[in-house]
Amino acid sequence: MPAPATFVIAGGGLAAAKAAEALREEGFDGAIVLVGREPHLPYERPPLSKTYLQSGGEREKIFVHDAGWYRAHAVDLRTGVTVTDLDRAAHQVTLSDGERLRYDKLLLATGARPRRLTVPGHDRDHVLYLRTVDDSDRLRATLSGAGRIVVVGAGWIGLETAAAARAAGVEVTVVEQERQPLLGVLGPEIGAVFAGLHREQGVDLRLGARVAAVTETGVRLADGTHLDADAVVVGIGAVPETDLAAAAGLAVDNGVTTTADLRTSDPDIFAAGDVANAYHPRLGGHLRVEHWANALNQPAVAARSMLGRRAAYDELPYFYTDQYDLGMEYVGHVPPGHAHDVVIRGDLAKREFLAFWLRDDTVIAAMNVDIWDQTDELKALVQAASPLDRAALADPATPLDRLIRP
């Protein structure tokens, strides 16, 4: 690597900022150029559907670093600019303002974009999405004056938005085509817990329903029902931002494909965060998850790998949610089709329980709902990957640490 080397980071979110931080902490003293689409400093996204959406507050609290940090660490931060072209042979990227930058190593931290509705009326002004801080500001302003909203999708973003809307006194209808919220992730038994929670808070859940069109005054369902709404909030998933990588001929499959050290099919290009479909050595396959923990922790591995040091990302997926008075943490990964095999410890009706997803009597994921100080034990159970006695797993009298085998 020539000295001084130039590392370019394409993307302006949490993963990008943490990568710049990790490179400096690892002793890299070359040039770092961080190119972000949004006009803001890099920020964290979880508050956008949680505390920031509900209360606003000081925007500065969501930023990863203040502006002074980038100056102090000699990070050339370019906001409001995107990488529009990647020339791998020339080791060069072109920016949306026409500038060309040469790189020695490049990190793709381009994230994801919301999946869009495609029904008639999808582009009406009152159709909102929640991905950016500006989206969150607009949605909060909408909730302050709306009487009723329709939320399309009962995933994490949809349910957190519904909770924020109810906290603002807005009437909410959630439209979900599956028979329970979060069905593919949690299965029907735990999905029913979240359905009950929202119904108790006055949310009108329309399950097994599909939006056929967005109208001037709401949405029309496939069965002909019309739901009046001042705004329609769409939360039907996200799509990784792979256009740049694909156009440059990098391997792309549900994200930018990487090895465990977050290296792409080009040895000088790496990927981290929502866009990376990385090989996970602990789980034995490629995995792309849009979780805060990945964006937080993968960049340290990417930085070491960019510097030619041995590294591998094997952290278990982790995420959390806060809805009304319910708090939840989840660790592990349930492959498609395995969300139904679950063991419960605690009281589902009171919504105070632990849940364990199993495959061949081995815990592959675990969740705590309003039972705290258990996350380390749950993580250890997943990491142990050993067959367990289901009765003991469900019995609160059996300490979790007694079930963990070396």
TrEMBL record:
Enzyme Commission identifier(s): 1.18.1.3
Enzyme type, top EC level: oxidoreductase
Domain of life: Bacteria
All copies of domain FAD/NAD(P)-binding, residue ranges: 7-298
Protein name: 3-phenylpropionate/trans-cinnamate dioxygenase ferredoxin reductase subunit
Pfam families assigned: Pyr_redox_2, Reductase_C
Any one GO molecular function term: dioxygenase activity
UniProt entry tagged with the keyword Flavoprotein: yes
Alphabetic keyword roster: Dioxygenase, FAD, Flavoprotein, Oxidoreductase
Record carries keyword Flavoprotein: yes
Cofactor(s) the protein requires to work: FAD
Reductase C-terminal domain location: 318-403
